[in-house]
Amino acid sequence: MTTMKPSLLLLRLITTLTLTIILANIDGCHCKIVQFIFGDSLSDVGNNRYLTRSLAQASLPWYGIDFGNGLPNGRFTNGRTVSDIIGDATGLPRPPAFLDPSLSEDVILENGVNYASGGGGILNETGGLFIQRFSLNKQIELFQGTQELIKTKIGEESAAKFFQEARYVVALGSNDFINNYLMPVYSDSWNYNDQTFIDYLMETLQGQLKQLHGLGARELMVFGLGPMGCIPLQRVLTTSGDCQDRTNKLALSFNKATSKLVNSLSTQLANANYRFGDAYDVVSDVISNPHKYGFNNSDSPCCSFGRIRPALTCVPASILCKDRSKYVFWDEYHPSDSANELIAKELINKLGFLGDAPTPAPAPTPYVDGDVAPSPDD
Description:
This protein has helices at about 5-25, 80-90, 105-110, 135-155, 155-165, 175-180, 190, 195-215, 230-235, 245-270, 280-290, 335-350; strands at about 35-40, 110-115, 165-170, 220-225, 275, 295-300, 305, 320, 325-330. By secondary structure, it is an alpha/beta fold. The N and C termini lie far apart (about 80 Å).
């Protein structure tokens, strides 16, 4: 019987261990925890930029003036979205837009994906006047395609683990009212009353959230609606300039029903931690008492055509307010970076999110007379 030399034995052990590690990683991946975001213009980070026929666009200056290089980036605000800020606070990477040309399997594994689309809603018919937009059903369909890519990349078992450990945000609903039910050009406005329309939304949303659970979503947050009757667009459509009470009551009814639905699904679905994020009260208080929160204006947009209202989007010819950080609303529809930060902090506090945040994007700086809208040639 021959004995193996110690050096040869050690070499074989090292070789065997190396092969074991290689084989173990052929169908696997040490993946990060990332976010998958489903939403509308409040969460869109660039998908609509690539929907060339869409009328819901944030592709012109002054959008994005306080984000990165100051050029439009697809966000419908001057700076960050609420999802950006919550992700930063919880230490999660900011997911790129699904339609971003640089998106790849490696980028998805490192950062997740944002499917949000300006004009999109819970219902397929919502936002039809914008021509192109991703409804929530379409966003979920795109997510299914993403899953197939990742399964091919890292194998089914590792992909299942990756998607189950990920964080999910669903933030839609305002367009289902403002760009559907409350507009007589849509059939939903005469096929339903306030209560039956809420029921229709909840039935649809329940199916969508269950579908996401079937696709692996275990840690999921659904955002509620703010006082959408107080956005500048709704105010300017009244003779008094006040908030539209019925629209706000619809938002409250939606929030109540959605909270009940989310809590119910969290107990019914296996291993589901579904939570409802409601910032209605604090946003309402900000609008009623702006100075209490450091704002000077809560009823008109920072970016507008002055007395020509409503100007539905912000464009290079628009007039900017003197100090963007003092305005609750950026344009006729959307909050400013400062307001988004306040909303995000409210949700973080209510839901008990913790985490070490990377350095966030710079907050808005006061407008200086003589500024001109940035262009790609600058």
